[in-house]
Amino acid sequence: MIKFFRHIRQRLLSENKFSKYLLYAVGEIVLVVIGILIALSINNWNENRKLNEKREKYYQQVIIDLKNDKEYAVSLKSAFETNLRSYKDYGKSFKEPGLNATKTLQNLRNINYYTVFMDFESNTINNLIDSGDIGLLPQEINNDLTTYLGSQNKMINGNNANANELIGMLRNASMLGGNLSLRKRLEFQPELNDELKIKDNQSQLILVLEAYVLWNTNTSNTSIEQLNDLIEDADLNIASIEKEFNK
Fold first, then answer.
1. How do residues 154-184 score in pLDDT, each as one tens digit?
2. 143 within 8 A of 225, measured Cβ to Cβ
3. pLDDT at 7 exceeding the cut of 80
4. Alpha carbon distance 51, 39 (integer Å)
5. Taking 90 as the threshold, does the pLDDT of residue 118 lie above it?
6. What pLDDT does 176 receive?
7. Per residue in 189-227, pLDDT tens?
8. Are 58 and 133 in contact (CB under 8 A)?
9. If you ran DSSP here, which 8-state letter would residue 111 be given?
10. Is 42 within 8 Å of 49 (Cβ atoms)?
11. Using an 8 Å Cβ cutoff, are 103 and 90 in contact?
12. Residue bearing the bigger pLDDT, 187 or 135
C-alpha cells in the first residue's frame, strides 16, 4: 500500500503536476490522521470496555460481601441477644426472698459467659481503597462505601476492645475461685478447700461477676444498635450499586 501511494506521488512529480501533487499529499495526510483517530478510538473503546468489565466485577463482589456482612451481623445480634436474655433472667433472681452470697454465686454460674468478638471477612472494599480502584466507582458510591467501611471498623474495634476487657474480668474471677472445674474437684478435698479459703473470696467474686454482667450488657446493647445500623447501610449500598449496575 505504501509503495502504491509512493508511485502515485512520483508520477505526479515527474509530470510536473505540482498542484495535484500538493492536493494529493494533503489528502494522504488527512487519510493518515483519520486512520490514527480511528485507531485511537478503537483503543479507547477497548480500554473503556475493560474498565467497565472491571467495574462490574467489583460491583458484583461488593454486593456479595455486603450480603455476607448482613448475614454475619444477624448471627452476631443473635449471640448478643442470647447474652442479654441470660442476664435478664439472672436479674429476676433478686426478687427471690432470702437471697444470700452462696445462692447468688449459684445464679451467676448459670448465666451465659460467651464473649463476642467481631471479625468481618469481606475484603473487597478494603482492596478497592488500597489499590486505588475505588476511583473507578461513581463518587457517591465511592463515598458511601468508604463511610460504611469506616463505621464497620469503628464498631469492630470498639466491640473487641470491650470483649478483651470482659475476658480480663473472667480471668480475675477465675483467680478468686470462680473456676467451676476447680470447685468441683475441691468437693472431694474439704481440707484443701479450707486451706485455699475460696469461700472468703465470695463477696469479691460476686462483685467481679456483677461487673462482667453490667459491662457485657452495655456492650451487647451498643453492638446490637450498631449492627442494626450496619445492616441498614448495607441494604442502602446494595440498592445504590444495583441501580448503577443496571443502568
1. 999 999 999 999 999 999 988 887 666 776 7
2. no
3. no
4. 18
5. yes
6. 82
7. 888 877 777 777 788 889 999 999 999 999 999 999 999
8. yes
9. S
10. no
11. no
12. 135
Domain interval for residue 228: 2-245
3-state secondary structure 36-85: HHHHHHHHHHHHHHHHHHHHHHHHHHHHHHHHHHHHHHHHHHHHHHHHHH
Does 6 score more than 50 pLDDT?
yes
C-alpha cell at 4: 502504491
Is the CB of residue 141 less than 8 Å from the CB of residue 240?
yes
Q: How crowded is residue 237: how many other Cβ atoms within 10 Å of its Cβ?
A: 21
Residue linked to cell 450499586: 241
| 96: Cβ contacts below 8 Å, ≥ 6 apart | 103
pTM: 0.77
Q: Which of 84, 67, 234, 77 is nearest to 152 (CA)?
A: 234
Cell of 110: 448459670
- Write out the three cell numbers for 139: 463518587
Q: Into how many domains does the chain fold?
A: 1
